[in-house]
Amino acid sequence: MAERLIALFLNTGTGWIAYCAMSRFQQYPRSRILRVLVFGMMYASVNMMITAGDAANILGVLCLFSAGTALLIKGGWMAKLSMGAVFFSLAMSVSGISNGIVFLLLDFRSMEIMKRGLLISFLIRLLFWSVFYLAVKNKPKETRPKLPWKVWALTDSLVCMPVATILVYLLGEDFAVTTGQTVLMLLFSWISSMGALFLVCELDQNQRVMEERQLWKMRSLYYKNLEKEQLQIRRMKHDMQNHLYTLQGLPAEKKEAYLDDLLGALSVQRGEHFSDNPVVQTVLAKKASEMEEAEIVRKTDVKIPGKLPIEDLQLCALLANTLDNAIEACQKLPKEKRWIQVRCHCVKGMFLLLVENPVEEEVQRKEGKLVTTKPDRRNHGLGNGEISDICEKYHGTVSCETEKGIFSIKIVIPI
């Protein structure tokens, strides 16, 4: 009875630690019932007893993990495939290593020794997963990897080797390998899987740095324009006293003409003020300049507070991607038909963004998401999926419709 309680405690701890570690890389569903199912999947996967030639348990875990990842985990199928393969490889490697170490240390001559060996195996698994969790626990859940499909494909190619190693050495019964050799091969499989996982994290971090640099460049341009305005104002103040003295000495019939010339010379080329929120102001100012260059008529109605509970990078992505799509659509139309209307408000605890523009053709959709019309669809259209991902993260909604040649996209996020 005591052995069973200890085994249950070790297995539950291992399952929970693996569940928490996986949450740093995969987005779990909001439903508590579904989260319990995810925990059950992790519990069964990491605690399964497997040995060389044990096809039933190994393939059972593979099917369970594949189905659970596909049905319960959120995100794109490439990301789920890559992360699922990595965690399957980790789980099977640790299970095989723990069992192999026990077989090397103990001689199973009695039931008592077998029970003790099982407890040692469970303890080794707990230690492996604890080390892994300590390595990733400081990684915020909000920074789950979001990478282009090519990077996920690269990850899959790297994970193929450890997964193949597991299947060959654990499913194969005719390989003349010792237990020590099996443990060594599975250890290399575990290290390879860890390397692939941390490579994904590093690539994702580089992607975020690039996005931050883009936002920084937009902000830099905005503040440079502000500096120019301030310089013009200082020059005006410096010359104003001389102009007033000149006006005082002019006859009445010449004052009006002098004032007209003065107003024209001293006019400040001010950038349009959209919002007190620096991100909203920066993005809209940049996109307004692009619309002006493309000869697109712009209508804006923006009432956003200085601070929002949406991260700067993701707020920038929402505005920039929706406006980029609108600008791209307008550039396909004759100049006299180009216009974009932007409405952005915070009302009753909701962030509302509505962008409308005329379109040349019906907007394509796939699985509820917008599809780019550019020829190279694999390298373009990533922003459309990012809009949906951001809305999903903040429990918001995104809806699109085309009516009478006018496309509109509406984003609603509770704040």
How confident overall, as mean pLDDT?
Answer: 79
| Terminal residue distance | 51 Å
Beta-strand content bin:
5-15%
Q: Work out the number of β strands.
A: 7
What profile does the largest beta sheet have? 5 strands, mixed
Topology as a string of helices (H) and strands (E): HHHHHHHHHEHEEEEHEE
Oligomer: single chain
Helix content: 55-70%
Computed CA radius of gyration, to the nearest angstrom: 31 Å
Number of helices: 11
Category from helices, strands and their pairing: alpha+beta
Shape: elongated
Which regions contain 5 or more consecutive residues with pLDDT less than 50?
374-383
What is the spatial order of strands in the main beta sheet?
Answer: 1-2-3-7-6
Q: Would you give an account of this structure?
A:
The protein is α+β, with helices and mostly antiparallel strands and 415 residues long. It is 64% helix and 11% strand. It has helices at 2-22, 32-47, 55-72, 77-105, 111-136, 149-171, 179-249, 252-265, 278-293, 312-330, 382-393, and strands spanning 297-303, 339-347, 350-358, 365-366, 369-370, 397-403, 406-414. A five-stranded mixed beta sheet has the order 1-2-3-7-6. Strands 4-5 form a two-stranded antiparallel ribbon. Strand 2 and strand 3 form a beta hairpin. Helix 1 (2-22) crosses helix 2, helix 6 (149-171) packs antiparallel against helix 7 (179-249) and helix 9 runs parallel beside helix 10 (312-330). The chain is elongated, with a radius of gyration of 31 Å. It starts with a helix and ends with a strand.
